[in-house]
Amino acid sequence: MPILTRWFIRTSLLLFIAALLVGAAEALAPAPMALWGPVYVHLLVVGWITEMIFGVAYWMFPKYSKETPRGSNALGIACYVLLNLGLLLRVAGEPRRLGWALAASAVLQWLGGMAFVVNTWPRVKER
Amino acid sequence: MPSISRWFLRAALLYLALGFTVGALLLWNKGLGIHPAIPHLLPAHMEFLLVGWTIQLVMGVALWIFPRFGAATMAKRDSLGWAAFVLLNIGVWLVIAGTPVLGRIAEVAAAAVFATHVWTRVRASGLSPM
């Protein structure tokens, strides 16, 4: 299992726990957690599910070439860093209504997603 | 990776790009405001990422890695996989186009056809009895 896959999967496990902690906090104290709904959902769907998929796809999809079996390492690392920075900015910014943080989070997560698409597209092939 | 899986996975990647783009618009708009109509894109964001990306990716990978039958049988059975692909994607766009009932019906049909295809491929591979 490549290092980047281990980063993705371990991060996804931590974000899975974080998401359910936020969900539990929302159930225990609905009023002070009123603005955390989108954070809970996105920790689950981006942090847990998407990062798990990205990590496993980076590992298991057909090899790009003998020399660079997993495509561009730089794009893979960029995807991991951008997606997680974006997600953390959302966690920090959403409950405090920090507009600039949400806008920056949008750009970072979008770039992370595009890095994955560009790097994975040529690996969707017969062998 | 068989041709049918490549179609599922490439479509899933396109929906990932679409869904992230709409999501970025929604989030930027929430933070700094672009246009009051942008929040109406939320159902499209959810449909692209839940059905178009996640579900389609899982279906494509299942068709790739589940135990297979011989080539002749697989060619016959792959028609069910293609039907699932067409129905699922018609369903996504019917939902996006504002006809959610028709879209969901097409998606249910896709799920049923997919389950019919995959059901008998869920079997022992010969390597392990458990």
Report on the architecture of this protein:
The complex is a heterodimer of chains A (127) and B (130). With 127 residues, chain A is mostly helical. Chain A has one domain. Helices cover 73% and strands 0% of the residues of chain A. Chain A has helices spanning 3-28, 37-60, 73-93, 99-120. In chain A, helix 1 (3-28) packs antiparallel against helix 2 and helix 2 (37-60) runs antiparallel to helix 3. Chain B is mainly α. Chain B has one domain. Helices cover 77% and strands 0% of the residues of chain B. Chain B has helices spanning 3-32, 42-65, 71-96, 100-119. Chain B is elongated and about 60 Å long. The mean pLDDT of chain B is 93. The chains are: A mainly alpha (127), B mainly alpha (130).
**Sequence of secondary-structure elements of chain A:** HHHH
Q: What is the radius of gyration of chain B computed over CA atoms, rounded to a whole number of angstroms? A: 18 Å
- Average pLDDT of chain B works out at 93
Range of strand content of chain A: under 5%
Provide the number of structural domains of chain B.
1
Using DSSP, what is the number of strands of chain A?
Answer: 0
Number of alpha- plus pi-helical segments of chain B:
4
